[in-house]
Amino acid sequence: MAEWAYLTNHARVLLHLAHDSGARLRDIAASLGITERRAHGIITDLAEAGYVITQKDGRRNRYQIQAHLPVPEPGTREPAVGEAVALFEPIPGEAELVSGGILPRSNEDLLAEWLTRTGAMLEDASLDFVLQRFEPVGEMVPTGSGEMPRQADEFATPDVIRRDGRWVHEGAFAGAGGRHGRHSPDFLPLWEEMTMLYRAHPGAKW
Known about the structure:
Arc Repressor Mutant, subunit A; 39% helix; two-stranded antiparallel ribbon; disordered N terminus; alpha+beta
């Protein structure tokens, strides 16, 4: 399974600095796949907000994260983690595909691993509030952003809790989401554009 992240670049910079307080801008930029100018701008944002203190160490900078600072409460629910969990919705016939060796692992196993690894990284950087504020997603994601008519089998993700020192999911997926063919009207043009790009650039990777 390819490595990927479901965090903002500001959060990823905090994680990087939590592991390496003397990180150079070019190393941070390379790690995140952004420009050095953008990395500098993010650190400036974090410093101005008081979450990072920059200290000179010869010709290098060292960054001290202020983990004790409270994180501002958002005005509205931020569904990013819920949408990430929704990515692990089981596909139709998954149990048979796994038992037959066609799929190497179930989506439930992948979700458990993702939560364990992501939760540990967030806790290291004192950003686990993201998981503490988790709310299950109840719409078709990530395949569409439009409004969907409410149906009896409306899609819902499992809950996310901390148990025995690590983050885990509790409960199961309910209803049917995008992997079962239910999409908002926004999905068709998105699918057509992705298909066009794939055919125009064979072998390209995002």
